Amino acid sequence: MKLLGISGTVTGSKTKIVIQRVLDEVKAQNLDVDVELLDLSEYDVQFCDGRDPALYTGDTKKVIDIVSSADFFIIGTPIFNGSLSGALKNLFDLVPVKAFRNKVMGFVATGGTYQHYLVIENQLKPIAGYYRAYVVPDYVYAHDSHFNDQKQISDPDLMQRISNLAHQAVYMHNALKTKNKNQALSFLYESS
Asked: What is the pLDDT of residue 115?
């Protein structure tokens, strides 16, 4: 089972730091989970122009393939001007809807005001709803004050929220996988 953490920005480092901490926490709690970090700043991703996702090449194709191969997600964005990053929005536009359908999504956001956590509620969760994805109840919002001068997480409450998100994402993925498997088996037995 593969958990993909997505750092949905091409600038800054705090979002990536928090996403990596969530992935580290998942790995510490669950040795059977493969974790991977997709840092959009490391790829030259084209702007979505409406073509079939299979027709993209280069880094854009790599990123689409990485996302499509994941079983569940921790998705993060810095908040710019009261909204998710353009890089993350572009990724959502590029990736086929079926890549997210019936998969678990957990969210992370970073920002400079305490009100920016609302972007998770008002923008990211509705996007997950469009994809028919399952959303982890808890999320992580990290304010600039949660980091020290070396850009290390220094807030113990934030660390607890990271641990909660890691636990809930894996728990939900496993519960839904088991439920779906049992429903499929039940259907097979009823059909025969």
From this structure: 86
Give residue 180's pLDDT.
64
Instruction: Average pLDDT across each block of 10 residues of the chain; the chain has 192 residues. List them in order.
Output: 97 96 96 97 97 96 98 97 95 97 97 89 96 96 94 95 97 86 49 44
Q: How is the chain split among helix, strand and coil, in percent rounded to 5? A: 55, 20, 30
Q: How far apart are CA 190 and CA 1, in angstroms?
A: 28
Please report the beta strands in the chain, taking only residues with DSSP state E, as ranges in sequence order.
2-7, 34-39, 72-78, 104-111, 134-135, 140-143
Closest C-alpha among 178, 9, 186 to residue 104:
178
CA dist 7 → 38, 118, 133, 144, 189 (Å): 6, 18, 18, 17, 42
Rg over CA atoms, the chain: 17
Domain holding 82, by residue range, is 2-191
CATH for 129: 3.40.50.360
The secondary structure of residue 117, as a DSSP letter, is: G
Domain count for the chain:
1
Tokens of 5: 């953490």
